[in-house]
Design brief:
Elements (H helix, E strand, L loop, with lengths): L1 H17 L6 H4 L4 E7 L5 E10 L4 E10 L6 E2 L7 E6 L5 E6 L4 E6 L7 E2 L9 E5 L5 E9 L4 H4 L17 E2 L2 E2 L3 E9 L11 E2 L19 E3 L5 E6 L4 H5 L5 E6 L5 E3 L8 E6 L5 E7 L9 E7 L5 E3 L8 E6 L5 E8 L2 E8 L6 E2 L6 E7 L4 E8 L2 E9 L5 E3 L5 H4 L7 E7 L5 E7 L10 E7 L17 H6 L3 E5 L9 H5 L8 H13 L5 E11 L1 H10 L8 E5 L5 H4 L6 H8 L11 H5 L12 E6 L8 H12 L4 E6 L9 H19 L8
Parallel strand pairs: 33-34, 33-35, 35-36, 36-37, 37-38
Antiparallel strand pairs: 1-2, 2-3, 3-4, 5-6, 6-7, 7-8, 9-10, 10-13, 11-12, 13-14, 15-16, 16-17, 17-18, 19-20, 20-21, 21-22, 23-24, 24-25, 25-26, 27-28, 28-29, 29-30, 31-32, 32-34
GO molecular function, one term: serine-type endopeptidase activity
Family: Belongs to the peptidase S9C family.
InterPro entries: 6-blade_b-propeller_TolB-like, AB_hydrolase_fold, Peptidase_S9_cat, WD40, WD40/YVTN_repeat-like_dom_sf
């Protein structure tokens, strides 16, 4: 009798899941997340990875799939408890990847159909990553951690259980990582006729204490082989301590496999120089370059360096576009790239010698990255605000798109989503600002809805058609909220003047832009002006704290995640001092103090706070240290303002662990429910 009852319960659960109509935080973690992808040498097959999560186990696992580049059935090649990553196609058509199956990270190879898998390396140090094959197949490169300085235990060997950190200079921590005794170095190693690494890996940065790629967020995109494999290019910021903390000056270095010599290709260029890519004939290197030292959100130009003459130029000079993901055409005559334009990411092309830039795609979607798959064909990672990443093929002649995967049709198919409206709002200084408005499913204009003003971070990170797993607009709308998401001053995709206007003016025109957006949308009869909230993270969290003292009764609730609260106390505790110096135009103790510390620091206006606020922060957030959230929550509590503090001791600037993410969303929506629903009451 028990077995039929159990089957009935399971059948009911399955039916309920398949009929689910509302997007939930839990459902987001059922989605397969597209990772890296590589096109085979014959351009016929796309290999890609998908990560799926087990919410109960609080972890994910990554497997490898393939799909024909021309379209066809998706095939899963691996299904193991060990995540596979770092895909490479060898010239012989075999697919390689890295995995740790209990012997440290090792290199594996298999046939294109998944058969014949074998381990082909015996790396003693299992920390390697970012592996790439030379086009010739003769060499591989990879990165490994190398001991470059003394540890605390080296200095005090009689105190092996001492638990402390000791520093004499800045940049002792970055994002979520503390500086230790190691640095990431680039290695190259020969490959035998059988495709296996032979001999030993040579450290191309031996004796240096600098990271390559630039830690902690960069990866294999900052490493490249020449087509013949005898040159490799890599990105590094060869500075340390205070000099590194105040500078964005990373450079592109060229290493000769033949003689072991290194040269700095970008010497004299003072900003970020990253992501080198060799031309098909190996005579040139293109990379992304920011011209302004210390400005991390400057326009990315495309530098083309001629290895024969030693000269280079920005072939995009004069363009308003900020480029990314640069690729050469097979004949070397054309450069392709992606760029943000008016709230989307699109594909562009231009002559590699410089000239007219052509926009190749249109539409309300993001092409987040791409790889070329033959003449006039690109394989892309595509998203919208309401649909997670899929692999698509784009015809570069006419922009026509063909879907190659439907990774989440079983999960997202039954889910109702509301419409996304692309509006223009007139700002206080007479400019036209793009504003996305996201509506609840089954929206009825005859009803009244609570509205959320979303404040974007960065402060120069655009609101595009990205599908976010952290601040998901479709998820917010599914809970019954109208979401107002303005591309306010400082956000890319609307020209350099718009992008650069925020630096030194955090509490000025960008804040007025926010208010213009929410005020205009609130004129609609379906927006309940008595149930409006304001939410955001990082600069968006700063905006929430600032607006809490300046909103003039507009909002009934606030939620700030990882926000800057007191600019003067934040300045010496953050790590990227170049960011602080550029955005605030100096230190709080400068003889002539920059206006930001008096006019824009939210802490100076906490006496005007009068509205319930939820504060969220991560303990490993070294970008905006945890004290900022604690100060804000403490001030709210001491002033008797209904407030709550959600703290994640082992998360950084972003909440990334599955169950922590679900908890974040539950507390987020619970707070909104208490403070914006009719007769709601804030937590105390």
């Amino acid at each position: 009798m028990k077995k039929p009852l159990l089957l009935a319960v399971l059948a009911g659960a399955t039916l309920s899941a398949s009929a689910q109509q509302t997007l939930t935080p839990e459902l987001l973690w059922k989605l397969g997340r597209l990772g890296e992808y590589q096109v085979s040498p014959d351009r016929k097959t796309v290999a890609f990875t998908v990560t799926r999560y087990d919410l109960g186990a609080n972890r994910g696992n990554t497997d490898i799939y393939t799909v024909p580049a021309a379209g066809g059935a998706v095939k899963q090649l691996t299904s193991t408890p060990f995540s596979e990553n770092t895909l490479n196609w060898r010239p012989d058509g075999k697919l390689t990847f890295l995995a740790d199956e209990g012997q440290g990270t090792q290199l594996y190879a298999m046939n294109a159909d998944g058969a014949g898998k074998q381990k082909i390396s015996e790396f003693a140090d299992g920390s390697l990553s970012n592996l790439k094959y030379a086009g010739s197949g003769k060499f591989i490169l990879y990165t490994q951690d190398v001991k470059v300085r003394k540890s605390l235990q080296d200095l005090y060997p009689d105190l092996p259980k001492a638990d402390a950190k000791l520093y004499d200079d800045l940049f002792y921590r970055h994002w979520t990582q503390w500086e230790d005794d190691k640095a990431s170095h680039v290695f190259f190693q020969p490959v035998g006729e059988d495709g296996r690494p032979t001999g030993y890996g040579k450290d191309v940065q031996a004796g240096e204490a600098f990271d390559a790629p630039v830690r902690p967020l960069a990866g294999s995109e900052q490493l490249a082989f020449s087509p013949d494999g005898y040159w490799l290019a890599y990105t590094s910021r060869k500075l340390s301590g205070r000099a590194e903390a105040v500078s964005t000056n990373s450079d592109v270095y060229l290493y000769s496999v033949r003689d072991g010599k290194t040269q700095n290709l970008s010497e004299g260029l003072g900003g970020y120089d990253i992501e080198p890519v060799f031309s098909p004939d190996g005579s040139k290197v293109a990379w992304l370059s920011m011209a302004t030292p210390g400005f991390e959100s400057d326009r990315n130009g495309i530098i083309v360096h001629d290895l024969k003459t030693g000269k280079h130029e920005d072939v995009t000079k004069g363009s308003e576009l900020s480029a990314g993901n640069v690729r050469w055409s097979a004949d070397g005559k054309t450069l392709y790239f992606v760029a943000v334009v008016e709230g989307t990411e699109q594909l562009f092309s231009m002559p590699s010698k410089g000239g007219k830039i052509k926009q190749l795609t249109q539409g309300l979607q993001n092409y987040n990255s791409f790889e070329l798959a033959g003449t006039d064909v690109a394989i892309c990672n595509r998203t919208t605000m309401q649909s997670p990443a899929e692999v698509v093929r784009v015809n570069l002649k006419n922009g026509q798109e063909t879907a190659l995967t439907q990774l989440n049709q079983d999960v997202m198919g039954p889910v109702k989503v509301g419409k996304v409206e692309n509006r223009r709002v007139t700002t206080t200084d007479g400019k036209q600002m793009q504003v996305y408005v996201i509506y609840p499913p089954d929206f009825d204009p005859a009803k009244k809805y609570p509205a959320l003003l979303y404040c974007q971070g960065g402060p120069q990170s655009p609101i595009t058609q990205a599908f976010s797993y952290r601040w998901n607009f479709a998820l917010m709308a599914a809970q019954g909220y109208i979401v107002v998401a303005p591309n306010r001053r400082g956000l890319p995709g609307f020209g350099r003047e718009w992008n650069d206007a925020i630096s030194g003016d955090w509490g000025g025109q960008p804040i007025r832009d926010y208010l213009s957006a929410i005020d205009k949308v609130s004129e609609e009869p379906y927006v309940d002006k008595d149930r409006r909230g304001c939410v955001g993270a990082s600069y968006g969290g700063f905006s929430v704290y600032y607006l809490a003292g300046h909103h003039q009764g507009r909002f009934k609730t606030f939620i700030a995640h990882a926000g800057l609260y007191d600019l003067a106390s934040w300045y010496p505790t953050t790590e990227e001092m170049f960011f602080a110096n550029y955005e605030f135009k100096g230190a709080p103790w400068d003889k002539t103090q920059p206006k930001s510390y008096q006019e824009f620091s939210p802490a100076n206006f906490v006496g005007q706070w009068d509205t319930p606020i939820l504060v969220i922060h991560g303990g490993k957030d070294f970008r905006v240290p945890e004290g900022q959230g604690m100060e804000a929550f403490g001030a709210a509590q001491l002033r008797g303002i209904p407030s709550r503090f959600l703290y994640f001791p082992n998360e950084g600037h972003w909440i990334q662990k599955p169950q922590n993410s679900v908890l974040w969303n539950r507390v987020f929506f619970d707070w909104l429910g208490r403070t914006l629903k009719p007769d709601g009451q804030a937590a105390k």
